């Protein structure tokens, strides 16, 4: 069937309305944002409890000089935790920081997979995944987060800002 007003198929209009509602209504945005924030807060906090073990995990990737490992072992989880808290409080820079971290994680995990390294992911502490299979799982998880979740949050925020500006002017 075709909509008589727009000459578009009815199913197209129904799908467009569902997507529009998912982007405009605040609750889907809040749920996705809070889940991503909790993921990063948990991942950062768990590594902050044992920075020596996380430094050992980082050293197995052989990407940073030994002298920088203590700074990375504390700094990276601290940045993850701060970014998660910022996203939890809906600060725009929190989403930017999380997107940047996800890009970094995808590159590091991709490097480890290409080099066929037999290392722990280190995503949620030491020994959280099974070496090489865990790297692939973490790589695909991060790709989904960066390819689906982060754009959804950016787009949802933009659509809601636009809708808010339109109602203020009208």
- Beta fraction: under 5%
SSE string: HHHHHH
Mean pLDDT: 82
Rg result: 20 Å
Major sheet description: none
What is the number of helical segments per DSSP (H or I, 4+ residues)?
6
Helix content: over 70%
SS-based class: mainly alpha
How many β-strand runs? 0
The global form is elongated
Measure the end-to-end span: 34 Å
The low-confidence runs, each spanning 5 or more residues with pLDDT under 50, are none
Give an overview of the whole structure.
The chain is an all-alpha fold and 170 residues long. Helix content is 77%, strand content 0%. It has six helices and no strands. Helix 2 runs antiparallel to helix 4, helix 3 (51-61) packs across helix 4 (69-88) and helix 5 runs antiparallel to helix 6. The longest helix is centred in the last third of the chain and has 39 residues, at 131-169. The protein starts with 9 loop residues before the first helix and ends with a helix.
Which short descriptors sum up this protein?
mainly alpha; 170 residues; elongated
């Amino acid at each position: 069937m075709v909509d008589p007003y727009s000459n578009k198929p009815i199913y197209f209009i129904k799908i467009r309305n569902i997507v529009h509602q998912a982007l405009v209504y605040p609750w889907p945005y809040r749920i996705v944002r809070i889940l991503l924030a909790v993921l990063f807060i948990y991942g950062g906090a768990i590594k902050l409890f044992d920075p020596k073990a996380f430094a050992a995990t980082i050293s197995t990737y052989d990407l940073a000089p030994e002298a920088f490992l203590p700074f990375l072992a504390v700094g990276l989880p601290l940045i993850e935790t701060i970014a998660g808290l910022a996203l939890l409080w809906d600060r725009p820079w929190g989403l930017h920081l999380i997107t940047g971290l996800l890009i970094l994680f995808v590159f590091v995990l991709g490097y480890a997979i290409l080099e066929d390294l037999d290392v722990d992911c280190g995503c949620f502490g030491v020994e959280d995944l099974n070496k090489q299979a865990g790297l692939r799982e973490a790589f695909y998880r991060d790709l989904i987060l960066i390819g689906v979740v982060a754009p959804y949050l950016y787009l949802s925020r933009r659509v809601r800002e636009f809708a808010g500006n339109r109602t203020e002017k009208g």
